[in-house]
Amino acid sequence: MKKFTARSFFILSPLVSLCILLFLLPIKTTAADTTVQSCPELLNFNFKRLQDDVPQNLCQYSGKVVLVVNTASYCGYTGQYDGLEKLYAKYKDKGLVIMGFPSNDFNQEPGKNTEIADFCYNTYGVKFPMFAKSSVKGNEVNPMYELLIKTSGVAPSWNFFKYLIDRNGHLISSFSSHTKPEDGSLVKAIEQALISSK
């Protein structure tokens, strides 16, 4: 058996010191890491913005009350854009965000993204976030709607179907296309969600 000498200690000592130092150093966490870690599952998606196809990470809306709506430009309910924009203007500073997802699943949104964006802004002054046209049901459903449908057990049956998500990223409820943005049941659910603590 080899004798442990003072010389052996001095050879090992820098390695031991380095190991101890690395163990004691705090692990640096970046803002991006924190965002990913704290992002609710229902918002952990990336979609292109409607007007310019710039990718958007929905995690940026963590901590907000989110109303998700599938939209169309040539529908009997298209006038709800006006009510949605008024709802957004009234409650956005309190923490509400509305997300619009144009879809041609019901054959009432044939246009290109830029055409849809122009229509929304020029006709209804829409300023709430709108995302590139995608499918909200069926085999081509986008991943967010796939999870919303799985979580709620309800798929959009027509344009302007609504899902309400609380500040913690949990689904509160869904509302039919018949439920207008100014409907008391929807407004009450939004107001209750806004005053709930994070």
What does this protein look like?
The chain has 198 residues and is α+β, with helices and mostly antiparallel strands. The chain has one domain (40-195): Glutaredoxin (3-Layer(aba) Sandwich), CATH 3.40.30. The chain contains six helices and six strands; from the N terminus they run ααβββαβααββα. The strands form two sheets. The chain has a four-stranded mixed β-sheet, with helices on both faces. The protein has a two-stranded antiparallel sheet with strand order 1-2. Strand 5 (162-165) and strand 6 form a beta hairpin. It is globular, with a radius of gyration of 25 Å. It starts with 5 loop residues before the first helix and ends with a helix. The model is unreliable at 18-22 and 26-36 (pLDDT under 50).
Topology overview:
Elements: H1 6-24, H2 31-38, E1 46-48, E2 55-57, E3 65-71, H3 80-91, E4 96-102, H4 113-124, H5 143-152, E5 162-165, E6 171-175, H6 184-195
Parallel strand pairs: 3-4
Antiparallel strand pairs: 1-2, 3-5, 5-6
CATH domain class = Alpha Beta
N-C termini distance: 63 Å
Low-confidence parts, pLDDT < 50 over ≥5 residues? 18-22, 26-36
The CATH architecture comes to 3-Layer(aba) Sandwich
Query: How many beta-strand elements?
Result: 6
Helical coverage, percent range? 25-40%
Overall domain count: 1
State mean pLDDT (0 to 100 scale). 88
